[in-house]
Amino acid sequence: MATRAGGSLNPISFLIFAFLCYHELTSLVAGASTIGIGGELNYSSNPLVSPGGNFTLGYFTLSNTNYSYFGIWYTNDEQARKVWVANPNTPLLDNSGVLTIDGTGILKITSGGNTILNISDQVGTGDVNATLDDSGNFVLMDETQRRLWESFDHPTNTLLPGMKLGQNLTAGQNWSLTSWLSDYVAASGAFTLSWEPSQESGQLVIYRRGEVYWNSGLLRDQSFDFMPEWNAGSDMFHYNISYVSNNDERFIIFDAAHQNLPMWILNPNGQILDAANSRSLGPADFCYGYESDNGCANSLVPNCRGHNDRFEQRRGYFVGNSDTGGYDDNSSLSLSDCMERCWNNCTCLGFTNNSNGTGCIIWSGNLEYREDNPNNTIINVLVRGNSPKGNKWWMWLIIVIAISLLMLFLGLFCYLRIKKHRREGEQKKLLHELTASDSFNNVNEIENGGREGHDLKIFGFASLVAATNDFSNENKLGQGGFGPVYKGRLPFQKGATRLEKTFEHH
Ligand SMILES: *[C@@H]1O[C@H](CO)[C@@H](O)[C@H](O)[C@H]1NC(C)=O
Ligand SMILES: *[C@@H]1O[C@H](CO)[C@@H](O)[C@H](O)[C@H]1NC(C)=O
Ligand SMILES: *[C@@H]1O[C@H](CO)[C@@H](O)[C@H](O)[C@H]1NC(C)=O
Ligand SMILES: *[C@@H]1O[C@H](CO)[C@@H](O)[C@H](O)[C@H]1NC(C)=O
Ligand SMILES: *[C@@H]1O[C@H](CO)[C@@H](O)[C@H](O)[C@H]1NC(C)=O
Ligand SMILES: *[C@@H]1O[C@H](CO)[C@@H](O)[C@H](O)[C@H]1NC(C)=O
Ligand SMILES: *[C@@H]1O[C@H](CO)[C@@H](O)[C@H](O)[C@H]1NC(C)=O
Ligand SMILES: *[C@@H]1O[C@H](CO)[C@@H](O)[C@H](O)[C@H]1NC(C)=O
Ligand SMILES: *[C@@H]1O[C@H](CO)[C@@H](O)[C@H](O)[C@H]1NC(C)=O
Ligand SMILES: *[C@@H]1O[C@H](CO)[C@@H](O)[C@H](O)[C@H]1NC(C)=O
Ligand SMILES: *[C@@H]1O[C@H](CO)[C@@H](O)[C@H](O)[C@H]1NC(C)=O
Ligand SMILES: *[C@@H]1O[C@H](CO)[C@@H](O)[C@H](O)[C@H]1NC(C)=O
After folding, report:
1. Is the CB–ligand 10 distance for residue 324 below 6 Å?
2. CB-ligand 10 contact for 364 (6 Å cutoff)
3. Which residue lies with its CA nearest to atom 3 of ligand 11?
4. 172 in contact with ligand 8, CB cutoff 6 A
5. What is the pLDDT of residues 299-325, one digit of tens each?
6. pLDDT of 384-439, one tens digit each?
7. Running DSSP on this structure, what letter comes out for residue 92?
8. Model pLDDT for residues 459-490, shown as the tens digit of each residue
9. How does the average pLDDT of the chain come out, rounded?
């Protein structure tokens, strides 16, 4: 085969050629995983590859901008999503950037010999080098194997198995994720994801520009209240979370042994994406307005926004001769910032941003919306829902008034009934007591609704009040099962007989 393939080549030069090819190939496929003092990575050098080949560290640019960065990605991720970025907020505008370890052992990015960014801050003893390992961690170590700096302690927007999310209390360090500004700009965006410990457990919390935006609910037995997809159903979705809590640190790490490309990404829209299963674990959509289910934090809503008002992505445009709204080219603004502005500005009709996903273009005022944008760009239109707010508030008012009136009448009716019943009950009780005594014989006849006995007297309440001197204490005989017992003097019209009678006052 060699002779046939080699043709006119002599065997020795073929062997040398083959060796060189092999060497080139292996160094390409399984490049070095370590750089030492003076070592350099630039746009044209081979990237670092972890010993098992799982992760790659190198130079990259993002489409739609000419910004360049250094970062880490899964070697076999077709989208090469960056699990860590060395210089998210200090990109280079050309390809002059160099990742290196200087003579003092500091890991840094330089351009034309000038330091652009110090990545590590600690200085070790003697020789140092930095290695990309198979968990995706880039570790700077000195001769004593002391870890001077590691990328897992400085997360960007991605959490990998084995990375911590939480707090090191002794070091005063937080492990949290920060979203990118947009898919094309790796700079710190509007959202951060933290682990917030509580007594026995804790929860994931997403902040938007420093304010609570969403929470997962407490971690209970490998599940979160507001992450229904998490660990639901099939084994393929299964993650194991370990929560470590002691006096020095409180954090979670996760483990997903059966996954291809396991990672959580906090995306520019404030969602936690499970890359292994291509789904959102966090809020299903933006949290805004009256949304408070699924962990979304309640936010103040301007009066002009109805319950069902939503933003919809449409390929339309606004026309009109009045004010076309604002254009804020602040490239630190993300889509969610523009959404926030539009939602809270009652004249806003819709918005979009620059092709790199930053800045705000806001339409407001007296404009008309048309479908079919010849430029084929997507804009976010605020669509009014059928809400009970605004146009139907009077219906609610009528219902409330009707219910109040009904309650009032019902209350009055009941009050009168009870009052009447009370009085009747009192009279009946007195009557019963009087007729049950020895002095009155024809009780049965009365109780059976028969004729009134000749000896029977029925006393009015007023006469009893008079007889007992308004149920005075000196007339009180004691306390019976039905209430206090009084004696009284009753004036009798017929005859001179004075009757003393005890009866109960209830
Ligand atoms: C980039 O680094 C490689 C070594 O990794 C070196 O050969 C090359 O000259 C460097 N390129 C530039 C433009 O510095
Ligand atoms: C990127 O650089 C190229 C060549 O210099 C230029 O034509 C292009 O407009 C740049 N793109 C952006 C988004 O700046
Ligand atoms: C995004 O685009 C706008 C407008 O084209 C530009 O001013 C801004 O510098 C760009 N930002 C980035 C990070 O490329
Ligand atoms: C990097 O660190 C060195 C000291 O180690 C300091 O002199 C220099 O100003 C720093 N550079 C940047 C860009 O922070
Ligand atoms: C590296 O990748 C291989 C195959 O994809 C996998 O079996 C192994 O667990 C990975 N190692 C680490 C440390 O992630
Ligand atoms: C990296 O540094 C460590 C500690 O100094 C040393 O043991 C190891 O051999 C070095 N690796 C390389 C590839 O230089
Ligand atoms: C927390 O910080 C302390 C002090 O820097 C360090 O000794 C400890 O290893 C850290 N814990 C973790 C889990 O990184
Ligand atoms: C870490 O997070 C805690 C709680 O979220 C906060 O109080 C603290 O200020 C943060 N520390 C740092 C250094 O960011
Ligand atoms: C999760 O933990 C359980 C018990 O420790 C173990 O049986 C299971 O294999 C783990 N699953 C994964 C994906 O690591
Ligand atoms: C609402 O937006 C319009 C157009 O951008 C602007 O003129 C107005 O000041 C904004 N109102 C508030 C309250 O921000
Ligand atoms: C741009 O927006 C960011 C984020 O809202 C803000 O902090 C910054 O002050 C703004 N810059 C300017 C020049 O308005
Ligand atoms: C299409 O784009 C051009 C240039 O950006 C702009 O002037 C025009 O208004 C756009 N048309 C529509 C319907 O949005």
Report:
1. no
2. yes
3. 332
4. yes
5. 778 888 888 888 999 998 888 765 566
6. 876 544 455 666 677 777 888 888 878 787 778 877 777 766 666 655 654 444 44
7. B
8. 455 555 555 566 566 665 555 545 555 555 55
9. 80
C-alpha of residue 378 to centroid of ligand 2, in Å: 23
Instruction: Give the ligand at the shortest distance from the Cα of 171.
Output: 7
φ and ψ at residue 455, rounded to 5 degrees: -90, -10
158 C-beta closer than 6 A to ligand 8: no
Ligand lying nearest the CA atom of residue 354:
3
Residue 18, classed as helix, strand or coil, is helix
Long-range CB pairs of 370-373 (<8 Å, 24+ gap) are 370/316, 370/317, 370/318, 370/319, 371/314, 371/315, 371/316, 372/315, 372/316, 373/315, 373/316, 373/317
Distance 45 CA to ligand 1 centre (A): 6
Pick the CATH number of 31-154 from 3.90.980.10, 3.40.50.1860, 3.40.50.720, 2.90.10.10: 2.90.10.10
pLDDT tens track for 320-341: 765 566 778 888 999 999 999 9
Ligand 4 center to 106 CA (angstroms): 9
* Nearest CA, atom 2, ligand 1: 45
Q: Which atom of ligand 10 is nearest to the CA of 346?
A: 1
Q: Which CATH number fits domain 437-506: 3.30.200, 3.40.50, 1.10.3470, 3.30.70?
A: 3.30.200
For domain 310-390, which CATH number applies: 2.60.40, 1.10.620, 3.50.4, 3.30.310? 3.50.4
pLDDT, average across residues 364-381: 84
Whether 196 contacts 297, CB under 8 Å: no
CA torsion through residues 232, 238, 244, 249, sign:
negative
Please say if the pLDDT value at position 96 is more than 90. yes
User: Is pLDDT of 46 > 50?
Assistant: yes
Within 10 Å of residue 307's Cβ, how many Cβ atoms?
15
**Which ligand is closest in space to the CA of residue 236?**
9
- 190: Cβ below 6 Å to ligand 11? no
Please tell me if the CB atom of residue 62 comes closer than 6 angstroms to any atom of ligand 3: no
Q: Are strands 158-159 and 55-61 parallel, antiparallel or unpaired?
A: unpaired
- Tell me the residue length of the chain: 506
* Domain extents in the chain: 31-154, 156-299, 310-390, 396-433, 437-506
CA of 356 to the centre of ligand 2 (A): 12
CA distance 164 to 418: 68
| Residue of the CA atom closest to atom 13 of ligand 11 | 330
Distance 168 CA to ligand 7 centre (A): 6
Decide: 168 in ligand 3 pocket, CB within 6 A. Answer: no
